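User: two proteins, same treatment. go.

Assistant:
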Amino acid sequence: VNKALQRTEGNTKKLSLAFGGVGKLIGALGLGLVARQIVNTSRTFEDLEATLRAVTGGAENAAVSMELVRKFTSGTTFQLENVASAFTTLVNAGIAPTSEVLTDFGNLAAGAGKDITQLAQAVFNATTGEMEMLKQFGVIARVEGEQLAVTFRGQTKRIGRDADSIVEHLRQISQEAF
């Protein structure tokens, strides 16, 4: 019995040493992954800031825009990259993406189980006359001459075909429904 216990104790010590080495290896790998994630995050921020500089016309405007995106992102479930992408899409559509606009669009997107980038693209498309993407948010828009007949949850309203009217109506839907 004593010999068997000694063998078991010896095997346990060997296993313990082996697992100790594995633990160090796992720890080193973990540190490597954390370091890589930090580098990737820094690179992502640099890319986002470069994009914002390009679409806002300069470093000062980009800094203000990045701060708006950061603040908005900190209070939502949306990821920074997605909010920055939505911001850029809205700017390219000629829409001023204020924190209020982002909040309303974020609520509408979340209410439909979609990402804010999808809504930003749908809005961008709508401002160019393509209404199809709005359907994924429960919004059906049909062109009727110089107006749009926009239906949401069985209620139809006629609005202008311009970007401002589309944005305001979608914000109104968001405020009332979500």
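Protein 2:
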Amino acid sequence: MLKMIDVIADEDDRPVTLQQLKKHVQAADFDDDDEQLEIFLDAAIDFVASRTALTLRRSTWRVDRCDWWSGCLNVLLTPVRDVTIRYLDAAGATQTVDAELYRWERTKLGTAEIRFLDAFSSPAVKADTFNAVQLEIEAGFDEDPNQTGAGDDPELIFPSRARQAVLMLAASWYRNREAAAEAELKVVPLAAEALMGQLRVYR
């Protein structure tokens, strides 16, 4: 049985910086609105992540199972960076599966397919425990395009279209701060909506 994916850690760094947003809204030369801009920026990052099904912030997630699996297990996070598998042995002690005994591969959607190799023999796990097998998944993009080293893993480079969508949303909310505005104003700018549509992961 597979339990839902739960986030267990978020990195503090935003994939789009306050300085980038301030430059975008022409507020780089004063600090009076920084607190409000940070609120809009965080909301915009989370909104774009929700609309696109992309993991924009570097984060660590956990999937709990009550037992082992056969074949391939798919984890719906995009993009996956690394996978660690732990389990509770029959005595309830936490053990880590040797990384040489399983393989994970990133799919075309950036999700992870995880399978055990022939050398793996399923050890006994603690009975009647929903988290007897625990998968820890690192996901999210690099903020710095050079972070992975000269394009070693281009799939982890933060998408420029996601950055633009975040900036456009945060700027729109900053300029139109009331819940109700003139009829022609849109909650989500059409250009940002189009960008998110291009990035959307369909599973």
